[in-house]
Queue: 2 jobs
Job 1
Amino acid sequence: MDLKNLDSLSFFFPEIILTGTILLIIVLDLLVKSHRMLATIAMVGCVGSLVATIDLYSAQHGWLFHRMIVLDNFSLFFKVITLVATLVVIWISLASNEIRRVYQGEYYTLLLTCALGMFFMASSSNLLMAYLSLELVSLTSYVLTGFLPHDRRSSEAALKYLIYGGVASGTMIYGMSWIYGMTGSLDYATIQSALAQNSVNKVALFMAFVFILAGFGYKMVFVPFHMWSPDVYEGAPTPFTAFLSVASNAAGAAIMIRFFFPGASRMVADGDWTFVSGVEWPHVVLFVSIITMTLGNLCALNQRNVKRMLAYSGIAHAGYMLMGIVVLNNNGLQAILFYVIVYLIMNLGAFLVVVMIANATGNEEIESYRGLASRGAIFPAACLAIFLFSLTGIPPFAGFIGKFFLFAAVLERGGGVFVLLAVIAIINSVISLYYYAKVVKLMFLDSPDPGAKSLTIAANHFTLLVPLTVLTIVFGIYFSPLIHYTSQSLRFFVK
Amino acid sequence: MENVLSYMTFIPVAGMIVVLLLPSNSPNLIRWVSAAFTVPPLLMACWLYANFDQSTPGLQFVEKAPWIPAYNIQYFVGVDGLSISMVLLTALLCFLCIFASWGIDKGVKGYFALFLLLDAGMMGVFVALDFFLFFIFWEVMLLPMYFLIGIWGGPRREYAAIKFFLYTLFGSGLMLLAILALYFSSEPHTFDMTVLISQADKFGTQTLPMWPFKEWGWGFQHAVWMALFIGFAIKIPAFPFHTWLPDAHVEAPTAISVILAGILLKMGTYGILRINFPMLPVATADLAFWFLGALGAWNIIYGAFCAMAQKDLKKLVAYSSVSHMGYVMLGMASFTTQGINGAVLQMFNHGTITGMLFLLVGVVYDRAHHRDIEGFGGLAAIMPIYTGVTALAFFASMGLPGLSGFISEVLVLLGAWQKYPWLTVVGASGVVLTAGYLLWTIQRVYLGPLNEKYKGLPEINGREMFTLVPLGAIVILVGVYPNVVLDLLRASLDQINQIVIPHLHS
């Protein structure tokens, strides 16, 4: 279906509810002083939006608002992911000492606006819409990164983020203008049929794709558009870092898959895609993937700050996820969706523990984790160990299954270069073990510095920590529901 | 009792959960509860031994249930002659090692919980017949092992723990790729080992058109074989992947050394026999001489020479493991009935003998707080019983007739002689070297004038004897009447052998 503006509104409830919540928070911020109240409203709004999103699964797929955005299972999947991430992050924010110092109303407003932008990133089917949604996410992210008053690192991070973001999105819109020039349209479906006629200049098209990749790469954080990430991760308030690390990464993957698969490719056989104009962009992505995971892991080895380490580990994970795009089939895409889910669980879990420890010790240096297990924080330490081993990809944790499907997709494709990619990814997993295990070693194997005081961890954090840990283990052992869900989510609406 | 294998695997997991729920301020309760949870698997192992049908080569006590149907992953366990000896060994050693761990007094709860998890992982590896399940169990062992070495180990424990972890993870990464490669080559895609074995002819052997396989004439099957082999060789540990072993052994607490040498090392050779042999027979036939036979003989000699040079008693035993696992590889590579039976019997015997050796080293270390070979002397005078048991273990390790080590080594050498006389000569010279370093050690530690410093060392106590006596009894029993174990193995090993033999080049 192809709906006009007013008809579209009835399929637009998730966004409407989110927008309503944002406006409500702005108004209420003037009236109430309790930040707990604002957070609660934000969470209620998210839950409402989540219910509306799930309700849309039964609706017919189609274009909304004159083909600006598209309603299909794929976009609904990323909406659910974004909302779950937002809910968890609001919870983490409530527990964080950092957030307690800042303007609550604005914080939650911006966070929800950022989530709204991610909704559009996942569902836009028009280059202009894609660009606008990406900018919406970026602009709110700049502000949230620099949200800590009188914190030089936070301000510096925001400025860096802004400059890199400006360059990346400028490059991207330049690439988009080439596409527009060659095909005469901004609409994905029209672009696809124009490219299918094979009349465009291959080199120009290739360049246009590389330019556009800059914008996606900046959101999904792969090399060479990754430079902002460690500084921003370190400087931003930790709950927002957690949000960036999972939601921004997921939204980047969503917009990239939406553009390159239903947008610029076409499904040939059952689950296999082919690019409509014969430009070999997957090879570029393949080398980007190899370089991204290797650089991310090597740089993570020597980090002293846990947030910086997680930033580089996030870069490495973006590299793993790219493997699913390179293979150009539905198995690869499904592996990415699967990875998005497990990465959400384990990475948010890791950040939650980082916030808990930072609340107690006041810093985020890896060194401050020394002897954590014997300083009264054995439970959070054990959970962090589980999340970190899951990030390494060791069974029986969910991270292993995520990697397993990515490797499976790559090896199923077969052929020398793909086997090489898989071997490099395996070696990278081994490298990553070293720095994840370093944190575990400090927490469990080392004894605390003499005089280190024992920590008191507020018990209310456990209400979120326990489910995340349990899910990390359960999805490592029984993942049939996730397979079902991700394969259902891989339904694009094309014409 | 039809779910006996599942019970044996998951009772320790239940034990881990119970131990975690116990209050941490009552260490003795934790110890006894942990011990209680290793008893049922041991009893079931005895039951299994009694009810195992020795005449059939096929799988027994099979359990099969769909697990992840979308990817054809099953919960599939069972035992045959190859795995049953390892299952028995695991049940026994885990039970004994709980008692060998009695002296642990730091973080008792964590130690025993992790130990039970390790127990479950090891049992799972030997009974799993679904590749995915096998891999999960294979990796599940890593985490407890890392912490057990890293928290309760010696002074360089952190280094040893991470080294062990990195080596094994690298190997298992390659193994994962191999598993996936086999999965996608089978039709319909499956992780079921029995189906994969029946489809062995589907795994291509034509030379791959890319470097470096083109030069070597390797096909898909050879590449997969190699990936699996590296994963297993790291566990065996075969030269040049053995360097984690001395470090891990020296730093690990006594009971964990026993588990490492007694069970973990066997997983490497078990995996080769269970997977490489029947699933990739052509590659096995092509590559066995160099990577099992020659490497095995080299392992024997290299391990023995390294052991001879050691000053640390535990490191000596660790290198003797490298040497003795070489016999297993050499025996496997011969594809003769004697060789392959000898190899698996050697796996079993090495588990019991080296278990004893590490326990004995632990006994003296607990008393003297060092393991320096030169630092003792004349212990026989003050600890006669201890010395007697040690002599038994040392002579068994040396291959003295009448003790178990002799039977398996002779079988291996007999089998290997028919195929590779020269390698056998090299391997057999390892027996002399073994006698050399062990006798020399006995002389330096137990004989000679008593070192005055250790005049007051107490004799071996009841708990320690309790852990040693069952192993000693098995060593003697198998030495006198090896058929108690060999009868279990014969049929299944013959079947595995028959799969490979047609592919051998005369």
Note: The longest helix of chain A spans residues 152-183.
Job 2
Amino acid sequence: MIAVAWTDNPLENHWHYQQVVLEEEFYLAYPFVFHYMGEYFMIPSTRDTNSIRLYRATLFPNRWTFVRTLVEGHPFVNTSPILHEGRWWLFTLLDHNDNPQLIIFYSNTLDLLAEDLVWKPHPSCPCYSGDTKRTKPGGRPLIFDGVIYRYVPPVNFHLSQSPPKQPLPLTSEN
Amino acid sequence: MHTRVVGVGTTLGRRRIAWVLVEALKRYRKPLLTFLLAVVILVVLRAGYREVHYGCRMGGAGQWAIGMAFGDSPLRLEFASKPSVTCQHVNDVWDRHYVSTPFMIKGDSFSKAESRRSFGPEEDPLEHPLPPDSPSFHRVPAKGKWFKFFEVFENALSSEPSSSAANKLTTSDKKVPQLTRA
């Protein structure tokens, strides 16, 4: 289940717990919330449904309604969207236990509610596989100094000494 | 006359029942008190057991907390000394076990949600917009506030906590994958 807390000033780090705001029959985690065109959206991690589900706030921040399934067919975990170069991009972990893979999907339109919205897997994917220290998204991607950074969970990184993959331009071709 | 008989009979019936109850309490007072005491003890023990083994316990995942990291760059962050949200804050979930995977967002000065009334789950609010001056207009007090959404995990016995649940906003390692802009 997903809950919410609030503060007037995050620098003071004094948060007021509010309430549970979303509960489903299946397991919910990683409530990736974002704001786009006057709407609040949420893509929680819903691995058990074998899909990536989009919710919309009908009364922010307390009430959320399921809107549509974005992608289905696999156990996706920790899906993290980012708006980049006129497209939506979804970084997500395809959580096959023996071989976890980082997959990137990109959209054909910016309108998440459009009927003709289509998501295609990036042709270079899986971008990483077999190493959850690299494959699992761990927070909101950000653009800093012109570079897209993707957070990953801090799980004993010192054990992994393999060099990072060569950075590539993020386009639908490579 | 008929009504009067019924009334007398009812009164007698109530008195008889009360008498039987009183006599039963007198005769079985000790066993009844023992039974009630046992029930109370069981309830207390069960609540304690659930709190220790299911709930927000220290020494297990229940001590996980959501922290805040600050810095002058997203690549140089340090955690604040005190946690911002723990499972102790979650007061509307009995079997809460831990909290994790937080996402912050600021309440916008304008949200389409503010121009809608409260809808039931079957209704699509976009199909039934109401003007802002509608009597049922709900103004969301979100403007200027920061909100932190997070997972509340229930019932520890259904699954052991995984490392994935302990995501924290950190870039503490140079091996964070990065992609350059197109």
Note: The helical segments of chain B are 2-27, 29-53.
